[in-house]
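Morning run. Coffee first, then this:
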Amino acid sequence: MRPDLAAKYDLRLPRYTSYPTAPHFHPGIGAETYGRWLAELDPAEELSLYLHIAYCAEMCWFCGCHTKITKRYTPVAAYMQALHAEVGLVARHLPARMTARHIHFGGGSPTILSAEDFVRTIALLRESFAVKPEAEIAVELDPRTADEGYVEAMATAGVTRASIGVQDFDAKVQEAINRIQPYEVTAQVIGWLKQYGVPEINIDLIYGLPFQSVAGLIDTIDKAVEFGPKRIALFGYAHVPWMKKHQRLIPDEALPDTETRWRQYEDGCRRLTETHGYVQIGLDHFAAPDDPMAIALKERRLHRNFQGYTTDSAATLIGFGASGIGSLPQGYVANVGEIHFYQEAIAEGRLAASRGVAVSDDDRLRRAVIERLMCDLAVDLDAVAARFGGSGGQFAAELDSLAPLVADGLCTVDGHRIAVTEDGRTLVRAVCAAFDRYLTRGEQRHSKAV
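And here it is:
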């Protein structure tokens, strides 16, 4: 990427894991609406389930997640009691005992759970939903808090994928983000996962961290690849201290400048693809050529949701836990984020939904366009619009707005077909933004485009 373009497009844009995006959720969508949406689901539809474990043992200063720190297990146990009650409450609102084909534990840190609570939670999900035998059960894993007993419990409960948070192996970077995680700790946990037969391993890395150099990032990538993960994510650090006050503990002057951040991303991508043979998936994921995600990319059936890029095509994702977000055919819904109020709602027998947004036909069309751009780096507007009874010609203004990006070589427009160039891959969110009718340019609620 040319330095002038790196500066020109140093923008703050949504990550487009939903559309409309989360800043446009509003309190008009609450428990009553959510309950009605659940009851209206097609009983034959298959679901995805997301469980938000809202606690961590300590705060990582780079973190942008909804989480609370605790050194005691008592609040975690109380939280899980509420989450289990919510599972039952949601199940009772559904028109039938519905099928689940994908389960994802995120956080916070799911590995803060005791092995017993984790197994109990999986058992409850299997009781409340018809979990398919081939269902993917994925868990985000913090090697610092996952012991051998927990890993064994994961395997026994049927976990099929573990996503290992690494970020960076450099000790200085780890100290600057308050996440001390020696290489040996990560290696030990991955060894346990392989020993107990958890079949798929992902590794999550981050660029743009304080004191992180290009050479240091490449060294981290090489070390991560040695573990043989089928998938690696290379996320850009989202520095939003106005939203996450703990990020103020990271001094601005320690962060890489825009040019260095671009070099980290581009050199890291080349290392993963050209040196190690991974297939680049959209903006920030990489998969082995025989991985289902790489195959889905090739066959143009990749999807994007709140967990990022996915092969999961379920139209309904139900979110459990404080700040858990769900996506239903009628719209998006988010639980209250404050743990106390979440537990209070569930204890009173109320769904904990506190905000969301209903989606219109126009939203669905634009969401489909944005998803194809984010996943395929290309879209045929005529083909997508036809599915919604429209035509690509209705996007004349949006196509005109892409002229500066076309002039800079970031995308091409051929009639109603848009293709993001390889140089423009890093700025695919800027191409998507042309179709976002809610976006106010330069909003401080979003992270940098790269």
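The first strand starts at residue 12 and ends at 13. Good start to the day.
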